[in-house]
Every structure is written in C-alpha cells, then in structure tokens.
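2024-03-11 09:14:02 DEBUG pipeline.ingest accepted 1 chain
2024-03-11 09:14:02 DEBUG pipeline.ingest length=816
2024-03-11 09:14:03 DEBUG pipeline.predict start
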Amino acid sequence: MPERNGWMADVYVEVPAKAVDRPYSYLIPDEWREEVQIGSRVQVPFGPRTLIGYVVDVREGELPPRVKAIQEVLDLQPPLTPELVRIGRRMADEYLCTTITALQAMVPSVLKGTYQKRITLATDYDQREVPASLEEMFVSLHQAISQGNGVVSWEEACQIQGIHRTILKRLSEQGLIRIHEVVGDKITKQTTTWVWLASSADREMTLRDLPKRAMKQREVFTYLLEKGEEVSLPELLSATATARTTVKSLVDKGFVSWEEREEYRDPFAHRTFEQTIALSFTDEQADAFEAIMKPIENGQAETILLHGVTGSGKTEIYLQAIAEVLAKGKEAIVLVPEISLTPQMVDRFKGRFGSQVAVLHSRLSSGERFDEWLKIRRGEVKIVVGARSAIFAPFERLGIIIIDEEHESSYKQEENPRYHAREIAQWRILEHQTALVLGSATPQVESYFAARTGEYRLVNLHKRVHGRPLPEVEVVDLREELAGGNRSMFSRSLKTELIECIHRGEQAVLFLNRRGYSTFVMCRDCGETLACPHCEISLTYHETNRTVRCHYCGYASQLPKRCPQCESEHIRHFGTGTQKVEAELSKAFPGIRVIRMDVDTTSRKGSHERLLNDFGAGRADVLLGTQMIAKGLDFPKVTLVGVIAADSMLHLPDFRAAERTYQLLTQVSGRAGRHEYLGKVIIQTYSTDHYSIQAAAEHWIEDFYRQECQMRKLHLYPPFRRLYTMVISHPDRLRVLQYGQEIARSLNQGTFQYDYQVLGPVPAMIPKIKDRYRLQIMIKYEANPDLNTYVKERVRQATQMQDDSHLRIQIQRDGV
C-alpha cells in the first residue's frame, strides 16, 4: 500500500474517564489546515458518537490506516493558548485528574453548552471594496442575510453555492461580514439597535415629504440630522420621548436605517469610576516597587513575597507595577480571594486603567463571564482582576501576576482538578519569564518559610502609609466575664467602646466566623441534638424563617415544636451565629444601624457591592459579618473592630488551625484606624494564652512564624513534609471500610524502601456528607522530587484499584 502523508491533530475528547485519558489522532482536512491549532475545540467521531475535543498537538507525517477526520472546528479563535494546553497536561499529572478535566477547567462553563456561529453584514460593508474573486459569493451571501432578517447561521451560509468556510473567513478578514459566536443554551446574546439616516435620504426633501401632523417622525429625523452619526435606539427614544413604532415608520419609508448588533454584556455599565492618578511612594514602597520591577526588566522568573502590614499601601504598588508592565506592551493578572473584595478592587483598577480591565468572578452571570473572557482572548483588555479561575486568563504576553492575600484558602479549588492558583501562577511565570507577587500581611507559613530560606525574594513593608500607627489591641478573657456575671456575648469593654464609637459618629466592624442564629439545636430533656439526616453534622438554626439547615448539603426543615426523639417541648438553640449577634445588638443598643454580611445576606447578584456601598456611605454604624469582611476592606471611619469569639477555628482538628486563627485576627484587626482616626481592636476569647492569639494582639509577626514552624517540624507537617490526603467515600458504610483497608494496604507496600508514612484509614472530620460515608488516609513524605514522583504514582495506582461506580476518591495535596 502506498504511503500516505498528511496533517494530523492529537485530540483529548470530552470523556472524563481514566480509560480514555489519552490523545487520539485525527486527520485534518485540507480546507481546515489553517484553522486547526493547538488549543482549538473540534468535533470528532468517537466510536458511534460525535464528541467535542481539544487539540493538544498538530503535526505532519505518515497517516495511520483508517484514520478518522475532524468533522468541525468550533471556534474562530482557539479558546486555549499553547501555553495553557501545556499547563493543562501538567495539571493532570500533578493533581491526578484526567487531562480533559484540566483543560475544561480553564475555559468558561458556557463553552461546554450548545454552540452556534451566526453571520451578519459588517456595519460599514458598503464603504469597503469587494475583491473581484469574492464578489459573486458576497452578493449571494448578502442576499441570504437580507432575506434572513439581517442574519444567517454558519450552516446556512455554507449551503450557498460557491461558499465554504474559507470564503467566509476571507470575507470576515476583508471587513465585509461579522461572524458572531453564540454560546450556551441559557445565554441569550446582548443586543442593541442602532439607528442612522439612510444614505439615500435627501435631508431637505424628506422633511418636506413628512406630513406636518407626523410631528414625532419629524422630531426623530431632525434629531438624527443634528447628531450626524448613528444613535442607539434607547438613547433616541429617550431624547425624543417617542415610541419604537415611530422609528419603524421612518425605516419602512426608507428615510432611516437601523440594525440590531450583538454587544458585550458589561457588568459595570451602571457604574462610573472616578479617575485616579499614581500616588507618591514612601521609602519602603519605593524599595518594594524596585524589587518587583527587577525580574520584569531582566526577563527572569521570580516569586516575590510582599509582606506588608495592613494599610501599608500594597495595592498602590500593584497599580504602579502594572502601569510599567502595560507600558512594555504586556499584560497583568490580579487575583483576589473573596467576591467581597472585588468591588473595591474593581474601583481601584477601573479608576486607574479604565476599559483595559476585565473582571472575572462567580457572581457575574454566565453571559457576563463569557463576554469578559472573550475580551481577554481577543486582546481587547490588558488586565484581569478576579478570583481563583482568573489565573487561566488566556493572555499571551503576560508581564506580571499578583496574588493579593496570598494566604487565603479560597485559592485552592475544592473540585477536580484540585489545583492551587499560586502553583499555576508559578508555572505561568516560568513560561513568560516574569514576576509573581504574593501580597499579604499574614503570609501562609510555607510561603514565609520559602522566603526566609531564599526560595522566594522577601520584601517587607513594616509601616503603614503616612506613618499611621497599628491599632491598639485589647484581649478580653471571657472566663473572667462569666465569673463577673456577664453572660452577654458582648464583653463590658466591647460595649463601652461601641457606645463611644457610635457617639463620635464613627463606625465599627464586628467579626464572627459563624453564620446563622445558633450553631446547634438540642432537647434539654433527653440531650438529643438535631442532626442532618444526610450528613453527620448538627443543623444550624436560622431565625429569619425559623428553619434548621445543613451548611454542607443544603437540607432544611422547619424548627420542630417537639423533640423527634422524646416528644418533649423543651427544644432550645445554643451557640452564636451572625443572625443572633445582629438581634442582640438591636436589643443592647436601641437604634443602632447594622449591616450583616454573610452567605445568607449576599446570595443575590450585586448584594456584596450594595451592602459595602451602604456602609461606606455611612448608612450603618456597624458592619457585622463572617470572614468575608476580615480582609481587604478600607473604610476611613472604621475605628473599632470587635472579634466576638476568637476561638471558633482554633480547636479544629486541622494542623493549620493556629495559622488560620492568627491570620483572621490580624486581618480583621487591620480594618481599624487605616486613615486619620486612631483604631482600637477588642478580641474576645477563652484562650488568652494561646500563641496565635497573643501574636495577633501584640503584632509579633516573627514570633508567630518561628513558633508555628517549630510545631510543624515537630509533628512533620508542611513545609517540612509533603502531604497527600485521600478522602474515600461510598453510600455503603461496610464497603467504604473495605475499600479504605485495601487502599491503605496498597499504599503501605513501599514504606520499607522509601521514607514515607501512611496514616489511616480513619473517619474523616465529618464522617458522612450527602448520604456518603467518608474515610481519610494521609501520606507524609520528605520533600524531594524522586520521592514525590514515587508517592504520586503509588496514589494514582491506588485510586485505580477498585471498579465501583459508587466509589469516590478525592485527593488533596499538602492540606492547603
């Protein structure tokens, strides 16, 4: 048989199963050779089905026998860059997931829905010259578009004689047509109708021809005549106080033309941003800025830990570093941990860089997220500000990555692929040879250790801007409050300071890391606690609708009047949540204005921004909330911060409990006294002598990290050991116990040759969630590349041992 040569593409198909987790080769038809690129999405035959896949390689060579051909190229521009494809394949290896799962994580979710391409005429097509070779095809397409009310689908266009995809692409390049990508079942395109005077209309003759009684038509025509340019229909109707039917009458008479155009959905269309200018640096800020710019200037990959106390001006350094990067023709990614931080960050970045900024976070609608992503992919913006997934912004000339509040756990993805944004950022700066800036007043222990041992560059900001002092911190022992007869959730000191703060016309922030009204509901007669029927966790009482809810699976029911166990009526709720604090504030301080921010009050789109704007405008005296208010917020009149219960996270069975307590206390304390007013912080706790609380109160930064590192080294936790944590779950309790033992036995086989330790299986911290029983196995091992590769392979083999569709194994690295 004669040798056949041709172009082929390696494609991962959208089947997230280990059995098909490899690239499949497909023939690239000659007419699609230029369109199929690394990162393209294509439709391919796969067995009896047609599936979508991602191209990871394109090559020329001998064609294998019976090779199948790509059926369709879905995108005009590949959604993934070659760099992101490489990162996706590395993610699959590092995070032990399928490659297609990693690739899909990098594109907007709407790209996984239905997909269409539609064609319209370009707005100024009549001002462009049609090449002779395309003239006949353009006339046929023009006629079809006119008959189709201004639009035809891609498939309909390709059915016109003489027209195929290459012709359509050339017509688009000539500026004669526009090709619109319409994505998703639920995503309708955002359109605006534009109106202008018809080119054939004689201005003076038209005004004479219009009946004198048609006053509104004359007014519309005159308005367009005076404007001398196209006008959006909403603006026209508003300016002339007329109806759409009036404009349509002018269109029907040939005096006016109009066109409906697809436009970007702008989540900030209702906002105006005050333009800002660069501020003068302090000496510390100038040194930090210089340290950040050095690797950017030299074209070297470097991670910089910007360790600055709260209020030290880290954001201004970010802004000026990005301005320098943009001046070099490059792009920037800025990650923020919480949606609640995004409004203030958007204000600062939009105020400095305007329309060059795209914003990505989960509270945008699917359509808004897709349009913001599309601006990035088309190179129409240079900066992206967003949460964790914004690290995959498809920039091709990346000049800097900034991760603000780098210690935050929200940078870790909780579903496959379980990536950490910081690690992806480090891979990306290696690709682009530039700087990664990790900013925090309370860095993660591993980051601080890496900076102290020379793996990262450490840059310190010890002082607040303008020399403002750090707030005074008072630690209140709740045991003494109880002994003194105070059973209120507010200590005497906090009550006094809150009254004085409000009397001065200033504002306070109260922090409690529990939402709901009470943390559990119990029968006083038999001691039964109301528990979720699907999870082994107590139900939380919510006062607003008198329900008990599970914060893990979402189960909710009305608060029972009698105990389900003993029929007693003595059911009471215990513990404290933000709802209860809000109610107690109203009782203790009549007339106090409180804004509560937690998951319950911020579930609607735009609620974060609205609540923060209300507080910033002085429409409340107290901002009460969970950890979403603990960092990043900057309000000039906040002079008092109260921590209701500093112990809420301290005694959890988690080796990071002390670290997270220190970080939360330090961050929330930093909300006080950031401007001209002095700040005061009151921390209420039962554990006054714990080193994390003492360090936060006394601003003992070095002491905390030194003591925490000693504890980690003693108990063999990161950064002194690496970890894999496996959570095994199954609906059947006996089966999950059996699988846990088998997997542990498999993992233990290598402990004789290599220095690693297998702990478990033991019940997970929450033994049952959503009707699934859960076991946990932990693997500790020394941090060296060879052992990491070996342990990773052992874990991968262990996850593939069992063939049970109900079995799930979640793998988390380093307990982040």
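2024-03-11 09:14:41 DEBUG pipeline.report The longest strand covers residues 49-62.
2024-03-11 09:14:41 DEBUG pipeline.predict end
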